[in-house]
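Handout, section 3.2

Students often ask what a structure token actually looks like in practice. Rather than define it abstractly, here is a full record for Pur operon repressor. The first block is the sequence as you would receive it.
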Amino acid sequence: MKVRRSNRLVDMTHYFMEHPRQLVSLKFFGERYGAAKSSISEDLSIVRKTFHNMGVGRLTTLPGAAGGAEFTPGYSQERAAELISQLEDAVNDKSRLLPGGYVYLSDLLGRPDILRSVGQLIATQYEDTKVDVVMTVETKGIPIAQSVAMYLNKPFVIVRNSSHITEGSTVSVNYVSGSSNRIKKMELSRRTLSEGANVVVVDDFIKGGGTINGMYSLIKEFGAHLVGSTVFAEGQFTGDRLVKDCTSLIKVHATDAANSAIEVGPGNYMEKVFNQKEQ
């Protein structure tokens, strides 16, 4: 049964957004809608222009018998700046300030709309980079990693603070907590990461950088490669941070626990991803 163009465009757009970074053949759409390849090509041109104009990603078409179309979700510079500004406003609340200069984020990172936006924003940073797996540490980084992995269409792995019998044999490393200078241990199942894998590290918060540096050590133990690291929020830290090249969406510029004051601004995401110097 043939499907009208208006209906094809709606269904095609939905399909691409549900199957990011996956090559879909023209034959598949032709059989799905009972339409000729020439009609499908015209539809793809409309969808491609719409994605570009709305700043939600790019649709790439590959010619030939083995070709097709692939949707890479991503944020335009304008949409990225707007989202980061919204995140600043959401976090800039003195009631979120916790002892030690930490910020309460669990409610925000439990909201599906924010997780979808943050996941796509972080995935945009690595859209042109070969990524095999997304890594995070239990527990607050898990929903972010899951969202990023969905938009990159790659698996994610969870580093544990202690071994679980269901994980099988594990690799463990000791690391120094950047904020407390205490020695801690983290573990990762041997089955979750292959030698030579390209890894993106994500987490909810960075202060001294000890936890993320520990994940760097684990990646080396597996013989894998670090692609980059991105966090939702960067906290203020005096001294030498153990991680030097981490991307942050927002930054807690100043905290005053005594007066319950907090000031939040943009992180270095825009500068690193869009090469836009903050004014």
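Discussion prompt for tutorial groups: The longest strand covers residues 225-234. How would you have guessed this from the sequence alone?
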